Amino acid sequence: MATLHMLSHSPFSDNRLSSCLRLVGAADGVLLTGDAVYALQPGTAHYQALALLADSIALFALEEDLQARALSAPARVGVVDYAGFVELSIRFDKVNSWL
Amino acid sequence: MHDMSAKKSLLIISRQAPWAGPSAREALDIVLAGGAFDLPIGVLFLDDGVFQLLPAQHAGAVQQKDLSANLQALPLFGVESLYAAQCSLEERGLSAAPLSLTVECLEDAALSVLIDRYDQVITL
Amino acid sequence: MKFAIVLFAPAHSPAARRALRFAQAVLAGGHEIVRLFFYQDGVHSASANAVMGQDELDLASEWRAFVSEQQLDGVVCIAAALRRGVLNAEEAQRYQRPAANLAEGWVLSGLGQLHDAAQQADRLICFGGH
């Protein structure tokens, strides 16, 4: 059972990302949407934390949110549009949105 | 309800303190409704959600709803799979505290195993 | 695949817009939406009363149009709606409130409908949070 964790809050404003990374499983995925893409801001502890995640954990970011914030995704982060988002929700067994 | 022969299980991860806003109460409402329909439901108290488990709180002092009655009702509604994150308790100085509800305390590695066991999850 | 989509955020929240774009992509991908369920502040996304500027996104209207055009089952949690002041005509009358503001096409019902949708769906996806 692999879970896609979906985040949508800035990691600088609360602890959703750090809590998520504590309990993310080895086969899980993490999708950054909304302000959660700020975790890809280079030179930050959050960027480091994501870079240090096991290779088996797939990382994704929603394209429109990167574009809006003029952020680019490092190579290991898959950039998806909404069609890709739907595909991810199917590829993983369930989606855990960190509301 | 349609054919219930293969009921999907649902884990509710409750992350908010009791009176942070409506989430603690409204998460419990989802749990109780599921229990009332005899569905397999589990609850994990994570982050500030563990504050819901402190005994002797006085909701009335801030004119808020007392959630302890709802929490105590969980087993009555058939919801007995109750968990708390050990790291969340420790961060909040509660690892030795008596809790108002019998919960299984889980270390980090056990949390992903728990989530894997459920068909669906709602974190609020 | 069958999807149950639950929205917890009001219409002005980016989460409400993401939920709609996701729902549209679900249908465009040839999948089915068994139910839309609005809970917590998501009930405000079903309000008929929000007035948006001409150049602003009117997400509540977009949601209403989507439910109508695609003939989807759009349910708003009645308990969450009542305590947030989103009422249909029946509830406005029952509680003697001045206005019914639930948009056309949305039905007020209980959390049983959320569980029913979760049981029917292959995937349960939630959007929202503050």
User: How many domains in all of chain C?
Assistant: 1
Q: Characterize the biggest β-sheet of chain B.
A: 5 strands, parallel
SSE sequence of chain B, one letter per element: EHEHEHEHE
Looking at CATH, the homologous superfamily of chain B is: DsrEFH-like
* First-residue to last-residue Cα separation of chain B: 25 Å
What is the highest CATH level, the class of chain C? Alpha Beta
Largest sheet of chain C: 5 strands, parallel
Please give the CATH architecture of chain B: 3-Layer(aba) Sandwich
Low-confidence stretches of chain B: none
Structural class of chain B, please? alpha/beta
CA-based shape of chain C: globular
The average pLDDT score of chain C comes to: 97
Our Rg estimate of chain C from Cα atoms comes to: 14 Å
Radius of gyration of chain B (Å):
14 Å
In CATH's first tier, which class of chain B applies?
A: Alpha Beta
Describe the structure.
The complex is a heterotrimer of chains A (99), B (124) and C (130). Chain A has 99 residues and is an alpha/beta fold. Chain A has 4 helices and 5 strands, in the order βαβαβαβαβ. A 5-stranded parallel β-sheet of chain A has the order 4-3-2-1-5. The model of chain A has no long low-confidence stretch (mean pLDDT 97). The radius of gyration of chain B is 14 Å and the shape is globular. In chain B, strands 4-3-2-1-5 form a 5-stranded parallel β-sheet. With 124 residues, chain B is of the alpha/beta class. Helix content of chain B is 29%, strand content 18%. By secondary structure, chain C is an alpha/beta fold. Chain C has one domain: 3-Layer(aba) Sandwich (Hypothetical Protein Ychn, Chain: A), CATH 3.40.1260.10. Helices cover 37% and strands 20% of the residues of chain C. Chain C has a 5-stranded parallel β-sheet with strand order 4-3-2-1-5, sandwiched between helices. The chains are: A alpha/beta (99), B alpha/beta (124), C alpha/beta (130).
